[in-house]
Amino acid sequence: MAPKFGTSGLRGLVSELTAELVADYTRAFVAACECGGTLYVGRDLRASSPAIAQFVIDAALSEGLDVVDCGALATPALALASLTAGAGAVMVTGSHIPADRNGLKFYVPTGEISKTDEQAIMAHLGRPATHHTTATLHTGTQAEPAFRQRYVTAFGPEALRGLRLGIYQHSAVARDTMMEVVRALGAEAIALGRSDVFLPVDTEALDPDTRGVLAGWCAEHGLDAVLSTDGDSDRPMLADRHGSVIAGDVLGALSARHLGATHICTPVSSNSMVLQMPCFDHVALTQIGSPFVIAAMEEALARTPAVKVAGYEANGGFLLGFHAQLAHGPLAPLMTRDSLLPMLAPLVAARAQNRDLADLVADLPAVFTAADRLQGVAQTASQPFLARLVSDAGARAAFFAETFTDAGPERDVNTTDGLRVTFQSGDIIHLRPSGNAPEFRCYAEADSLDKARALVAQGLVQLRAVLC
């Protein structure tokens, strides 16, 4: 696919992320956005990432910015370091997409770039290089330790004492950090599935074979849970002692409750059970993507600066918008997607109550979600198809009647992001093309996990017949 700039930054085929193109986007970013005179640069573990990171570094130095090269580290660790320093940042990562692709994520000194920033960057493309010679390159050695210490300070060295936790390492850039953090919190950590080649693990759409492996590890090693992340470690994956993966939006709700949040901002695709949880005073539903969640959080803080606001996405990426005071210590805000916090907080909560992680989930409102995607679906096919369903009630009814015969007629249609249809049965189907990859996603919500998964499977069969 041609490199595309959107909610998750720039993404494209490695073969097309040339030195010239990466330098062009880097120059446009530093021209359009305030970076505080310094740029922090990090990367994931893809084979292509070191070279692309060097393209960014060279371009930033040429523009007169000092550069702090943080090497391979989690995206939230890079964001925390740049926010603390009042600097801009660029993370070289393609997140969960295949290894033949990569990308750039951009951060200003206050956090992730906004949709307005995206437009400004696009408007500055094509600027000639300025060739400054006075900028300095530094090696950033404190970013990852500071990120790790953040959780030890907040939760304390006894928070996970007695737990036996597996760390599915694969090629996640925070795989060693996860080991160190859970050990520092008192747990026993067992390394599992480490890979020397990049694996495109999508924590939102784990395949049945991977789910089976997780269950096998839990039984073989007597684990209380398995932790993992996607490639750049801004999305969590947490499985209970049976190997059952807990959905990201469930982790978000559990984490927000444990941290004492009262105001939630989350995309419309998230599990609607959060609307039934009495501990939250207000829930704002947004478009899909962390910039939209952040915008809603900032609006809440502008209205009431002391509001205890948190945000999360259906993929589990968690954003903390207030100073949380936990039993052991404080936890400062970090309004960018974090993967460690929404795994640690539920584990700490369960351990403090001397309960199993699955018990915490079982106590939540009985609403279940599932999601999967079709890959290799061009937007030239998916966008007209979705537009037709949105605009034509007859076409929509015909499409859904073919597969979802037990759902009944539609009760509500939500087009905040894609097409989200609630049926008379209470089942929900949400269709949405990816904004930065040739993928088409199908989400479902039902009163049982098996039913939600079946709805997604049925939806993918019909979507494949139409789009592939």
Characterization of the model:
By secondary structure, this protein is of the alpha/beta class. It folds into 3 domains: about 5-140, 3-Layer(aba) Sandwich (Alpha-D-Glucose-1,6-Bisphosphate, Chain A, domain 3), CATH 3.40.120; about 145-360, Alpha-D-Glucose-1,6-Bisphosphate, subunit A, domain 3 (Alpha-D-Glucose-1,6-Bisphosphate, Chain A, domain 3); about 370-465, 2-Layer Sandwich (TATA-Binding Protein), CATH 3.30.310. About 35% of the residues lie in helices and about 25% in strands. The protein has helices at about 20-30, 50-60, 75-85, 115-125, 145-155, 175-185, 210-220, 250-260, 290-305, 340-350, 355-360, 380-390, 395-405, 450-465; strands at about 5, 10-15, 40-45, 65-70, 90, 100-110, 110, 135-140, 165-170, 190-195, 225-230, 235-240, 245, 265, 280-285, 310, 320, 325, 330, 335-340, 370-375, 410-415, 420-425, 430-435, 440-445. A hairpin with a 4-residue loop joins strand 18 (about 325) and strand 19 (about 330). Helix 12 crosses helix 13. It starts with a strand and ends with a helix.
